[in-house]
Amino acid sequence: MINAIHTLIYTDDAEATRAFFRDVLEWPNVDAHDGWLIFGTGRSEMGIHPSGNGPRHHEITLMCDDIEQTVKDLTAKGARFTGDIETTSFGRTIMMAVPGADDIMVYAPSHAVAYDL
């Protein structure tokens, strides 16, 4: 089932934001690739993404080890999922409907994870 939360901060200056979390807050991290740091936050993790041309925003995703079993287990408890499980560059994903709120991504990551740091 869900085993962690992966939060994202979209930023206008990803290097500066990553440096703040690494050097000022001294959060443990892994380098997923090419300086793309993912920070340990206890049994959660946080990635710093550049905002590019879009607005700055925050995003919450729920992580699991086995997405098919997680979808099956949560569906049995009344959860609804939109679309099918998809393979992306960072893992296998599906969107879960949240009553009264926006959908939340559930994913089984294919990248190095930081939540056990």
Brief description of this entry?
The chain contains two helices and eight strands; from the N terminus they run βαββββαβββ. It is an alpha+beta fold and 117 residues long.
Give a verbal description of the structure.
The protein is of the alpha+beta class and 117 residues long. It has one domain (2-109): 2,3-Dihydroxybiphenyl 1,2-Dioxygenase, domain 1 (Roll). The protein has two helices and eight strands, in the order E-H-E-E-E-E-H-E-E-E. It has helices spanning 14-24, 67-76, and strands at 2-11, 29-31, 37-40, 44-50, 58-64, 80-87, 91-97, 104-109. An eight-stranded mixed beta sheet has the order 2-3-4-1-5-8-7-6. A hairpin with a 6-residue loop joins strand 7 (91-97) and strand 8. The longest helix has 11 residues, at 14-24. The chain is globular. The model has no long low-confidence stretch (mean pLDDT 90).
Give the total of domains. 1
* CATH fold name: 2,3-Dihydroxybiphenyl 1,2-Dioxygenase, domain 1
Number of strands: 8
CATH architecture: Roll
Radius of gyration: 15 Å
DSSP helix count?
A: 2
Could you give the distance between the termini? Answer: 20 Å
Major sheet size, sense and barrel closure: 8 strands, mixed
In the predicted model, the low-confidence regions spanning at least 5 consecutive residues are: none
Report mean pLDDT, rounded to a whole number. Answer: 90
Structural class: alpha+beta
Fraction of helical residues? 10-25%
CATH class: Alpha Beta
Strand content: 35-45%
Instruction: Provide the CATH superfamily.
Output: 2,3-Dihydroxybiphenyl 1,2-Dioxygenase, domain 1
